């Protein structure tokens, strides 16, 4: 690696004399930065979209099996006990994590105001990551899976993921170390934290559950500490970092309040890692462990409301923009669902409500509200923003984007609603000693059927998105420098804001 | 000038920029049109929000002081972490009538019906039946045997003849059989002392070799036994036991249920 990077003249000039930076120089700088992220971003995004399709397929099989338990049972590798964890791990590690990494490394380069360094580390990481996910999903389907929720990947796969992640963490630290001087924007805090938190979570959980297993009930505690923190200290910070960047960026407004950003970040860091134990309410754990988790879960109100106000006040007065900007529509949808999912999660941690929702489909609905309606939607928004800049080609069709949005928005809305209602009925029935267990299963049938329908909508949306992505990569269509928006610029009044 | 291999992707762009005198219009349109990078606003945190957060912090302290079990590693009592809390309110064992009804619904209603009336000629009624209430020549032991091993051939119940087959239910646990019997002996106006799991276990052991369902004549040959622990000390007439016998909750006394965390 060179000691000094060779920047194009205007960029180098701007670094030596920051006061002389012109808007044109900034644009050139952005172009150089975006071009430097091209290969790693496309690798991570491409594989993420591939795993999204695989994950959707596995989800459909698992969902259909809940309607017709005998379906496809002649093949051991397609039994529910394998397909369901294969779905979970394919979407968590294959799709969401890879999409998050792709977004995060583009954001890191933009926020560090420097072209991406050491892209070999990232390309190596992408290869290891995909190898790990491939081996892991195949391992689960072939019967090698472990019975630890969210960590079902067999050892040989989880080790590869860890190597991949180690490379990314080293890269993130190097990027941050060699950033251009200046103010550190809130998105950067979340990204750097996520890149340090996740390897800590993943290695600790794997060591304590796998390589040097601790004894007895404590395994359950470690399991849920990991699984919940993956949501809260990995996906949430990346999702929020993206929203914190894209919302003000597309609107051209400052983020509402720096002070709220600080409060939101540090209260998340303080409270989140205590949350996992609320999955174990009623379990054989010391009372203080559960109570501390209940308290920390309720205290999540602070970062959630703080972030919600910060995002909402930034968009406030500009909701018109949701009509034409795909990026903003997906991102704001996700940011709003972050608030919803978090408030719902807080309510589910309160023991008297947890008694009803625990062990029901309500929890499944909540998981999809968090990982899909919040995180995945923001990732879609980020991809719509980042990919044209990285590839150097506009999205081929606004109609495809529109179909994508409405299919997944209606699909996920329907899924969350039917699973929540069905889950509540199921939970109340399970609590009634006069209702037999078999009868409680009967109550869930119509809701699970509707869930399968919503899964079909989501999958259709994903296929459309994958087609759109492929056309973009192949640079299909005429050369344009106009953005692909839901509405042409003439239709928008008064001030055109461009995505 | 450009010799950094890590920026290979940007080579072409840079070359173009330089070759064309840094004409930024050649830079991709998406980058040209985008707004400035995000920056911070500096609105203050509203006071009402701080007040709500402070109230939450106060609540958190209160909750922990009530429900943390003194932060001891050996306090597990779920009661202490429930909303209802406020002290170790020991929950009694579940009501055998409720659990018994659940088991009856899951296993017995298909033949004996939710009303316990059965089906004429096939499945005998349980309501007021001397077989159930240990009247006539019947004993508690006969009732348990029927559930464990089944019953076949024609039988007489309350003067009616029935000729269906009762399958064996020995796959159920002693506790479950006891609960079902306790339930049917105290539902639909029936009233008889409960059956306890220990008695079921004893009979199961005594007749471990019984593979065929019983017949009425076989059972009749076995002397009736009224279980002692279940029967009230009141004199036994052989018919329906005295009113106001042990309440349904009683059988569990034979098997003390302790609340380990209450200690």
Describe it.
The complex is a heterodimer of chains A (499) and B (263). By secondary structure, chain A is mainly alpha-helical. Chain A is built from 16 helices and no strands. In chain A, helix 8 (218-251) runs parallel beside helix 11 and helix 8 packs antiparallel against helix 12 (326-349). Chain A is globular and about 75 Å long. Chain A folds into two domains: 23-182, Four Helix Bundle (Hemerythrin (Met), subunit A), CATH 1.20.120; 186-490, Cytochrome c oxidase-like, subunit I domain (Cytochrome C Oxidase, Chain A). Chain B is built from ten helices and two strands. In chain B, helix 4 (96-107) crosses helix 8 (174-184), helix 7 crosses helix 9 and helix 8 (174-184) packs across helix 9 (197-206). Chain B has helices at residues 8-19, 29-33, 47-67, 96-107, 109-112, 130-133, 140-149, 174-184, 197-206, 216-221, and strands at residues 155-157, 160-162. Chain B has a domain at 96-235 and 247-252: Orthogonal Bundle (Cytochrome Bc1 Complex, Chain D, domain 2). With 263 residues, chain B is an all-alpha fold. In chain B, 29% of the residues are buried. The N and C termini of chain B lie far apart (79 Å). The longest helix of chain B has 21 residues, at 47-67. Chain B is elongated, with a radius of gyration of 37 Å. In chain B, strand 1 and strand 2 (160-162) form a beta hairpin. Helix content of chain B is 36%, strand content 2%. Residues 1-10, 20-26, 80-88 and 230-263 of chain B have low confidence and may be disordered. The interface between A and B is large, with 88 and 67 residues.
């Amino acid at each position: 690696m060179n000691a000094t990077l060779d920047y194009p003249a205007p960029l180098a000039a701007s670094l030596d004399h920051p006061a002389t930076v012109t808007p044109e120089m900034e644009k050139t700088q952005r172009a150089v930065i975006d071009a430097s992220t091209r290969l790693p971003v496309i690798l991570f995004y491409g594989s993420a979209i591939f795993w999204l399709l695989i994950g959707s397929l596995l989800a459909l099989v698992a969902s259909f099996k809940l309607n017709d338990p005998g379906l496809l049972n002649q093949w051991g590798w397609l039994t529910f006990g394998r397909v369901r964890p294969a779905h979970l791990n394919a979407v968590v590690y294959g799709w969401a994590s890879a999409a998050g990494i792709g977004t995060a490394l583009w954001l890191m380069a933009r926020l560090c105001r420097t072209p991406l360094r050491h892209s070999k580390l990232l390309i190596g990481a992408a290869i290891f990551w995909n190898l790990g996910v491939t081996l892991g999903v195949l391992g689960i389907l072939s019967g090698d899976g472990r019975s630890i929720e969210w960590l079902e990947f067999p050892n040989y796969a989880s080790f590869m993921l860890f190597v991949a992640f180690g490379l990314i963490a080293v890269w993130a630290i190097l990027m941050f170390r060699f950033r251009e001087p200046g103010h550190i924007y809130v998105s950067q805090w979340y990204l750097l934290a996520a890149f340090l938190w996740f390897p800590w979570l993943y290695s600790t959980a794997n060591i304590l559950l796998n390589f040097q297993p601790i004894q007895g009930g404590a395994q359950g505690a470690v399991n849920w500490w990991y699984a919940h923190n993956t949501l809260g200290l990995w996906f949430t910070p990346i999702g929020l970092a993206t929203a914190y960047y894209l919302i003000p960026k597309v609107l051209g407004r400052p983020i509402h309040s720096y002070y709220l950003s600080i409060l939101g970040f540090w209260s998340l860091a303080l409270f989140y890692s205590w949350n996992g134990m609320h999955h174990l309410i009623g379990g054989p754990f010391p009372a203080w462990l559960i109570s501390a988790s209940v308290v920390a879960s309720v205290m999540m109100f602070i970062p959630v409301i703080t972030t919600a106000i910060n995002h909402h006040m930034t968009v406030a007065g500009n909701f018109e923009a949701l009509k034409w900007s795909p990026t903003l529509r997906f991102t704001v949808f996700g940011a709003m669902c972050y608030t919803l999912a978090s408030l719902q999660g807080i309510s589910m941690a309160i023991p008297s409500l947890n008694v009803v929702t625990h062990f029901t489909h309500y929890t499944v609905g909540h998981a999809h509200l968090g990982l899909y309606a919040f995180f995945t939607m923001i990732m879609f928004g980020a991809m719509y923003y980042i990919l044209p800049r990285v590839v150097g080609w506009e999205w081929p069709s606004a109609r495809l984007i529109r179909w994508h949005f409405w299919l997944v928005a209606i699909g996920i809305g329907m899924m969350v609603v039917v699973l929540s209602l069905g889950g509540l009925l199921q939970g109340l029935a399970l609590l009634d000693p006069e209702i037999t267990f078999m009868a409680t299963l009967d109550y869930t049938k119509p809701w699970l059927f509707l869930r399968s329908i919503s899964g079909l909508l989501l999958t259709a949306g994903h296929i459309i998105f994958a087609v759109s992505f492929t056309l973009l990569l192949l640079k299909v269509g005429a050369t344009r420098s106009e953005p692909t928006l839901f509405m042409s610029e003439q239709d928008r009044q008064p001030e055109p804001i461009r995505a | 000038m450009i010799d950094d291999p890590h920026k290979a992707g940007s080579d072409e762009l840079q070359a173009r920029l330089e070759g064309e005198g840094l004409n930024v219009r050649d830079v991709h349109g998406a980058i040209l049109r985008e707004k400035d990078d995000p920056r911070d606003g500096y609105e203050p945190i509203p006071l009402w929000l701080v007040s709500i957060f402070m109230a939450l912090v106060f609540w958190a302290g209160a909750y922990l002081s009530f429900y943390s079990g003194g932060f001891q590693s050996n306090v597990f009592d779920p009661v202490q972490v429930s909303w209802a809390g406020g002290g170790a309110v020991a929950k009694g064992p579940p009501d055998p009538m409720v659990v018994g009804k659940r088991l009856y619904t899951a296993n017995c209603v298909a033949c004996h019906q939710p009303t316990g009336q059965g089906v004429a000629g096939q499945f005998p009624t349980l309501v007021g039946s001397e077989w159930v209430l240990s009247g006539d020549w019947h004993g508690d032991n006969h009732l348990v045997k029927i559930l464990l091993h089944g019953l076949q051939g024609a039988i007489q119940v309350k003067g009616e003849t029935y000729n269906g087959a009762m399958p064996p239910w020995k796959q159920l646990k002693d506790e479950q059989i006891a609960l079902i019997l306790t339930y049917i002996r105290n539902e639909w106006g029936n009233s008889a002392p409960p059956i306890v799991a220990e008695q079921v276990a004893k009979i199961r052991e005594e007749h471990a070799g019984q593979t065929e369902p019983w017949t009425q004549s076989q059972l009749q040959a076995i002397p009736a036994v009224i279980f002692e622990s279940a029967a009230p000390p009141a004199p036994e007439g052989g018919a329906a036991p005295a009113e106001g016998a042990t309440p349904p909750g009683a059988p569990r006394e034979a098997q003390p249920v302790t609340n380990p965390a209450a200690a």
